[in-house]
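ARCHIVE CARD
Drawer: 12
Card no.: 0347
Subject: one protein chain, sequence and derived structure
Cross-reference: see card 0346
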Amino acid sequence: MLETRYRAARALPLGAQSRPAATGSGVSVRPAGAEARFSLRVRLADGAAPKLAGLALETPINTLGTDGETWLARLGPDEWLVGGPEADADLLQGRIHEALAGLSHSLVDVSHRNVGIDVSGRQAAAVLNAGCPLDLSETGFPPGSATRTLLGKAEIVLLRPTNAPLYRVECWRSFSIYVHGFLNEAVFGVEGPAAH
C-alpha cells in the first residue's frame, strides 16, 4: 500500500500542466512522463566495462546513451544517472545489479527526488539560455550530451537525447515549480508579448 502511494506521488509532481507551443517560437514546455531514475556510482577497473540495459558504461563524461525508453547519462568519472519507464523500475534495478555483480557499486532509486521537464521547439536552446550559461549550439552541446549545470538558481541535469530540438531538464522535486515557472517565463521572453 505504501509503495503504491509512493510511486503515484512521484509520477507527475507538476500535474498535467503543459505549455503548448505558441505560433511564434514553437517552444513547448511540459512535464515529462513518470519515469524511474537511479543514481549509480561505480569505479570501473581497466578492461571491459559491463553494459547496463544494453547501454555501455564506459562512455565519455557528459554523454547520454539511449536504448528505447531507457537512458544512461555519464555525469562524472564514477557517476551515472539512469532512467527508464516507471513500470519497469524493479526490472531495471535488478538488471543493473545483475550487470554489476562482483563490482562494488552504489545504486540509489532517486525517482521520488527527480522531476523531468521537456523543452522542445526550434527556439528551445534560447529558452534554456535565459538561465543556463552553457553553449547549447550544435557544436557546444550536440545530441547525446548530458551535464550538470544551473538554470537560474536551481541545479539541474540537462540532457539532449536526439537530433531534434528537444532537451530534458532533470531537477529536484523541490525545485520543480521554480524551474517550470522559469522556463515558461523564458518562453514568454523569447516569443515576446505579441505572441500572447
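Annotation on reverse: The helical segments are 2-11, 89-99, 124-128, 176-191. Residues 124 and 159 are 13 Å apart (CA to CA).
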